[in-house]
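Students often ask why inverse folding is considered easier than folding. One informal answer: many sequences map to the same fold, so there is more than one right answer. In these notes we will look at a single instance of the problem. The structure comes first.
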C-alpha cells in the first residue's frame, strides 16, 4: 500500500472530520484519553498523533505549522500568538545568562528594543553591526556568542542580508543564524540558504488580512521540540499560544500567499519606478541601482518579485506627515503601521515602528526622519494609485 501512488495523495491531503475541504477546527483547550498511560506517554512526547493541551500542541496549530514548514523547507515549525513571541521565544531558547548575540543594527523596532533594553536583565550582551559588512560581523563574534540575528530585508532600511555568507560564519563558529523573513515570504527561503531558525510575524504578508496578530518559528525537529519541552521550552513555559480559530483562518489565507506576493511586488516595482522618475529619493531593492539588488537577486525566487515594501525620503518629519495625510485623504491607502495588507499602508518609521531606536542610533544607521515606508497593496489599477500619489506630491 505504502508505495502505491494512488494512496500517496491521501497522505498529503488534509480533510476535515466529515471530508470537509478545510481541516476541521479543533476548538478545545484540552484532550481526553481512554488510557491513563497514553496521557503519560503524550506528556513525555512519546505518543505520536496524540494531543494533550493546546498551549503545547493543537491539531489546528499543527496544520498551519506543517504548511509553514513545507513553505520554508524546514523539518518542523511552531506558531505563536505574535511575531514578537516567535522572536523572543527563539532568542531565549538559544541564549542563556552570560551569552552574546550579534545583531543587525537595522531591525524592527520591537526586536531592537528587546535586544537593546530587555535582555540586559538576563545578562545577555548584544553587539549591533551593519549586517551587510561581513568583516564587522566576523569581528563582533566572541567566544560566548551564541547567535547572529538578522532580517532578510531589514525594517525599515530594506538592507539585504547575505544569508549564505552569514550562515557560513555561523557554522564556522558553531552558533545559530536566526533570520526574520517577515518582509519576504516565498521570495526568499532563508533556511534553504543555511539559516538555522526562520521567524515570522504572520500578522503581515502571510495572513495578509490585518485581522489578527500571529507569529511563526520554522526550524529543525530538535529546535521545535526544545521550544515545546514541558520542563525547559520557552514557547511552552512563556505560553504565547496561538488561538486555533486563528490558525485555521491563517491557513486558508496562506493558500493565496503566492498570488498576493506577486501582485505586491509588481505594484511596488511600478511605484518605485515612478518615484524615481519624479526625482524622489526612493529605496526599493527591486531597482537595479539599489545596494541590495544583486544580493536579493541571487537569493530570491524570481517569479515572486522583489517584495511589496518601498521607502521614500521626504527629508523632514513634517513633510512626511503632510504627504501621508494628503495620501490618506486622496484614497491611496491608510496612514497606519504594519504591512502586508491588501490595501496600501504608509507610516513614518522613525516616529512609529522604529521610534524605540534612540535618535542618535537612527542617525548612525542612516534612518532619515522623513522616511515614509509604504507597504504597497494589491491595487488592480496601480497607475491610478500613482496618479493620486502624484497629485499629493504636487500639492506639497
Ligand atoms: N518582525 C518584523 C520585521 C516586523 O515588522 C514586526 C512588526 O511590525 C515584527 C517582527 C513583530 O511582529 P508582531 O507585531 O506580529 O508581534
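Output (designed amino acids):
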Amino acid at each position: 500500500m505504502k508505495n502505491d501512488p494512488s494512496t500517496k495523495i491521501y497522505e498529503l491531503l488534509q480533510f476535515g472530520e466529515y471530508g470537509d475541504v478545510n481541516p476541521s477546527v479543533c476548538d478545545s483547550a484540552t484532550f481526553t484519553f481512554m488510557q491513563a498511560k497514553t496521557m503519560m506517554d503524550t506528556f513525555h512526547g512519546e505518543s505520536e498523533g496524540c494531543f494533550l493541551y493546546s498551549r503545547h500542541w493543537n491539531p489546528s496549530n499543527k496544520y498551519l505549522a506543517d504548511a509553514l514548514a513545507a513553505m520554508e523547507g524546514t523539518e518542523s515549525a511552531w506558531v505563536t500568538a505574535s511575531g514578537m513571541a516567535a522572536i523572543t521565544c527563539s532568542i531565549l531558547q538559544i541564549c542563556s545568562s552570560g551569552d552574546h548575540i550579534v545583531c543587525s543594527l537595522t531591525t524592527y523596532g520591537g526586536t531592537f528594543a528587546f535586544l537593546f533594553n530587555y535582555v540586559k536583565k538576563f545578562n545577555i550582551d548584544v553587539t549591533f553591526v551593519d549586517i551587510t559588512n561581513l568583516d564587522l560581523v566576523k569581528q563582533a563574534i566572541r567566544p560566548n556568542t551564541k547567535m547572529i540575528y538578522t532580517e532578510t530585508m531589514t525594517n525599515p532600511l530594506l538592507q539585504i542580508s547575505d544569508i549564505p555568507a552569514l550562515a557560513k560564519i555561523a557554522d564556522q563558529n558553531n552558533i545559530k543564524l536566526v533570520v526574520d523573513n517577515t518582509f519576504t515570504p516565498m521570495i526568499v527561503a532563508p533556511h534553504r540558504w543555511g539559516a538555522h531558525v526562520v521567524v515570522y510575524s504572520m500578522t503581515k504578508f502571510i495572513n495578509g488580512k490585518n485581522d489578527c496578530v500571529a507569529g511563526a518559528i520554522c526550524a529543525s525537529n530538535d529546535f521545535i521540540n526544545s521550544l515545546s519541552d514541558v520542563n525547559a521550552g520557552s514557547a511552552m513555559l512563556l505560553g504565547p499560544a496561538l488561538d486555533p480559530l486563528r490558525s485555521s483562518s491563517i491557513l486558508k489565507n496562506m493558500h493565496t500567499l503566492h498570488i498576493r506576493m506577486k501582485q505586491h511586488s509588481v505594484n511596488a516595482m511600478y511605484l518605485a519606478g515612478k518615484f524615481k522618475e519624479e526625482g524622489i529619493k526612493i529605496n526599493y531593492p527591486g531597482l537595479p541601482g539599489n545596494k541590495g539588488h544583486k544580493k536579493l537577486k541571487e537569493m530570491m525566487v524570481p517569479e515572486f518579485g522583489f517584495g511589496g515594501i518601498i521607502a521614500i525620503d521626504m527629508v523632514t518629519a513634517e513633510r512626511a506627515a503632510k504627504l501621508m495625510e494628503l495620501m490618506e485623504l486622496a484614497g491611496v491607502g491608510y496612514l497606519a503601521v504594519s504591512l502586508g495588507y491588501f490595501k496600501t499602508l504608509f507610516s513614518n518609521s522613525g516616529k512609529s515602528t522604529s521610534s524605540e531606536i534612540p535618535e542618535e542610533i537612527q542617525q548612525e544607521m542612516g534612518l532619515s526622519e522623513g522616511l515614509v515606508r509604504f507597504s504597497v497593496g494589491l491595487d488592480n489599477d496601480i497607475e491610478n494609485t500613482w496618479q493620486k500619489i502624484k497629485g499629493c506630491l504636487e500639492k506639497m
